[in-house]
Amino acid sequence: MKRIAIFCGHYGSGKTNIAVNYALARKQAAEKVAILDLDIVNPYFRTKDSQTELDAAGVELICSDYAGSNLDIPALPAAMQRPIADRTYTCVIDVGGDDQGAVALGRFADQIKEEGDYAMLFVVNFYRPLTRTAQEAFEVLREIENACGIRFTGIVNNSNLGPETTAEDVLCTGVKTEKLCELSNLPLEMTTVAAPLLGEMQKKLRQVFPLSLQKQII
Amino acid sequence: MSEKVLMKGNEAIAEAAILAGCRHYFGYPITPQTEIAAYMAKKMPKIGGCFLQAESEIAAINMVYGVAGAGKRVMTSSSSPGISLKSEGLSYLAGSDLPAFVVNVQRGGPGLGGIQPSQSDYFQATKGGGHGDYKMIVLAPASVQEMASLTVKGFDLADKYRMTAMILADGTMGQMMEPVSLSEVETETYDKPWAVTGTKMQRPHNIVNSLSLVPEELEQLNFARYERYKQVEANEVMYEEYLMDDAEICVVAFGISARVSKNAINEARKAGIKVGMIRPITLWPFPKDALFAAAQKVHTFISVEMNMGQMIEDIELAIRCTKPVVLCNRVGGMIPSPQEVLAAIQNADKGGNA
Questions:
Q1: In whole angstroms, what is the distance from residue A175 CA to residue A57 CA?
Q2: Does the beta carbon of A117 lie under 8 angstroms from any beta carbon of chain B?
Q3: Residues 239-298, chain B, touching A (beta carbon < 8 A)
Q4: Residues 143-202 of A with CB under 8 A from B
Q5: How far apart are CA A53 and CA A60, in angstroms?
Q6: Is residue B318 within 8 Å of B292, Cβ to Cβ?
Q7: Residue B79: pLDDT above 70?
Q8: E strands in A125-168
Q9: Which of A202, B75, B107, B158 can pair with B99 through a Cys bridge, CB separation 3.0 to 4.6 Å?
Q10: pTM value?
Q11: Which structural domain range is residue B28 located in?
């Protein structure tokens, strides 16, 4: 397990949801866990929306002072630096979508690479319209790397169609995921699964990561 | 693999527009509809289309005017304050009888307002907004799938009647993600003999213009335009009826308010209250006849809207004030909860009509 886990990917691929669930999972084994909301692109669907659950679990949330306030101000607080520099922290970083979002990560790239104890994970949902194929996803992957200056170390398959997702919907994206792993020469780190499908999927896949917490609107 | 894709409402509009043959997008970014522009910026260059971020909303709508005049499918999108800026152009498009497709993903107002969802541009969309006598076809989607299907419909209607079709959505509809199927998109094509495409020395000049200095002629142009609007009112009204067969109370709501209302109606039905809903899908033309017919059997209407009471006036007109119409509303970026709508239904059931 690396000390720093970074989640990047295409806009709307599910990064925030995974990062929040991942931070909560890491907290079970680590004393100090912080989640950093680096999203400077989208004012909606923020890590901040899960503040109650994170507080209850004792996960420290560091985000823009303006997150969730409806003020669309792309600013990051200085406190972001603390869990990145303080190596006693387990650190989960939720990065904004696409290369535009990844620019914000560049500010910490040298520091993270110098320590070297990180996982840089590419989140992909093959049901999203602009990452329908492994090739399209691979292009987004490279754009993000170029924007932030950190190479990916693994793939997270988060393919889903929202609440109506079936096990088959997830399983049949395996081929595309393998193709993406081949194109990028990266390992598949995990396949995410919503709580209702967990039992079934654990029998069929390795490295299944459960998404117990799901934020829904209307 | 499922043929469905998981899309935001804004993305569904953009993809459906491309499928409808739109190859020209002009816009200026504003939350909460920026994904439309972002999607077009990524997609248009790959399919030989034109994405252009204009220097302002006013520039963007005038670019739309230009392409529409050349007879090509064209669109712009914005959110409330941006639509106000585009309103002059919308009037010019109407005055020139040009087909255009415009999206308003509404946010709270007036003024700069906020970035949370609202339906407070109902008057602006259905009664004009720009100057002069004109109408736009106003479509109100209530799901991401409808964001796509009504976009295609909008392009078709705009071409068919040579007028602007507008999607009137809100921030929630724009941002929410749902699975969408885009495999069965069918679109119509219409001849545009009036388009300014070059005479090649083989026909008289076509002129696209909204200036008309002879009052007798300008009057005739207005009369002719309103004859066309009558056709739209006769042929293009769309609405959904929900549990109206035995209803004694009729909720009227569109867009996200209709989704919330549906939940409340289902709860009320469990408690034995006979309530249904008429959901206008076209806000103009408004489903007047359906409402008037409903007024013969229900005792109360409830207008659920995210504004200070705008559609309620059209309901009262449609039913000729024969029954009380109660307003259930939230504003400023707030969405009514199913509980609030349920309370309004329960109150109406007890005979409360204020």
A1: 36
A2: no
A3: 256, 259-260
A4: 160-162, 164, 169, 172-173
A5: 11
A6: yes
A7: yes
A8: 154-157
A9: B158
A10: 0.93
A11: 4-235
- The per-residue pLDDT for range B249-294, each reduced to its tens digit, is 999 999 999 999 999 999 999 999 999 999 999 999 999 999 999 9
Residue with tokens 């919308």: B90
What is the CB-side half-sphere exposure of residue B302 using CA atoms within 13 A?
30
* Tokens coding A7: 């989640």
CATH (domain of A171): 3.40.50.300
Pick the closest to residue B341 from B253, B246, B282, B270 (CA basis). Answer: B253
CB contact, 8 Å: B53 with chain A? no
How many domains does the structure of chain B reveal? 2
Per residue in B195-225, pLDDT tens? 999 999 999 999 999 999 999 999 999 999 9
Which among B1, B114, B178 is the nearest to A173, CB-wise? B1
B32 and B165 in a single domain? The answer is yes
Q: Which of B235, B267, B296 is the last residue of a domain?
A: B235
- Are residues A129 and B11, on separate chains, in Cβ contact within 8 Å? yes
Strands in chain A per DSSP E: 4-9, 33-37, 60-62, 90-94, 118-124, 154-157, 188-194, 208-211
